[in-house]
Amino acid sequence: MNTQVQLFKALGDETRLRVLLLLLRHTELCVCDLEAALDMPQSTVSRHLAVLRNANLVEGERRGVWMYYRLNRKYGISKAIFKCLKKYCLTLEQASADTHRLNEFLKTKNVETCSKGTGKQEDSQ
Amino acid sequence: MNTQVQLFKALGDETRLRVLLLLLRHTELCVCDLEAALDMPQSTVSRHLAVLRNANLVEGERRGVWMYYRLNRKYGISKAIFKCLKKYCLTLEQASADTHRLNEFLKTKNVETCSKGTGKQEDSQ
DNA sequence: TTGACACATCCTAATATGCGGATATATTGA
DNA sequence: TCAATATATCCGCATATTAGGATGTGTCAA
User: Fold this and answer.
1) What is the pLDDT tens value at each position of chain B, 125 positions in all?
2) Chosen from B2, B5, B15, B24 to mutate, greatest number of chain A CBs within 10 A
3) Which 3-22 positions of A have CB less than 7 A from strand D?
């Protein structure tokens, strides 16, 4: 399919827009961060990231077991789109709730393991 | 649905992108012009125009029997998108063929009726 | 008010997309 | 090599989107 069409198709989904808005604020995030921020199962998050990757909107870098995703600013059109998102979409209804969930998660995140389910809230013993 | 998502959904379709690119070059076009340019049936063209209208990307104005469509530049985000399209999408594969078909049609277009099927090519007798 | 024309909407089948559990793959440390 | 963890992909199902013919609506002229 045409590159530009693919790009806009990728943007035309609320979940993926939420991912991009999170990456606008946080420069880079791993999949488990996004799981927490979006409150969605891992397979769903990963699938959306694949769509964004294929549209050249994000790029991933593996560091150890983690995949860190950031915005892909290599292309003029994607840079233009990010500007547009920053200016007109950061007010997206879900965006602030996502950021809040993300920050909560980052606070209690175990750096060794993603600590899903067994956050630090309970390991003070 | 969220306004911004709806906007990008509308952009994420090759036919609709082709319509917007035509309107970037021609300021305003009626449905039968677009039928000719896209080489698609009227109902299909009309449906896509409805999607673009609902996304605030185009606006229509009735003049007599005709509906003239043009880009809707009332909103910051749509203006930004049009700039983006102009800069990065006018090279879309189909775009030049569409413009060519449109120009051919406009040459032979009967101003009274849309002259579908009975173009001027055959009425020189 | 009737007919012709431009356009919009409805209807149904085909296709695409989204979801999330299950499973596969990759990396690391033991 | 094996187990544990993070991520990617597969699969089946549900829903959304698309196409285009048929039909409805609005406008104009006679």
Assistant:
1) 689 999 999 999 999 999 999 999 999 999 999 999 999 999 999 999 999 999 999 999 999 999 999 999 999 999 999 999 999 999 888 899 999 999 999 988 867 677 644 333 333 32
2) B5
3) none
The reported pLDDT for the residue numbered B54 is 97
B9, B14, B76 member nearest A12 (Cβ): B9
Shortest Cα–Cα distance, B88 to chain A (Å)? 6
Q: Do the Cβ atoms of A25 and A99 come closer than 8 Å?
A: yes
**Domains of chain B, first to last:** 3-105 (1.10.10.10)
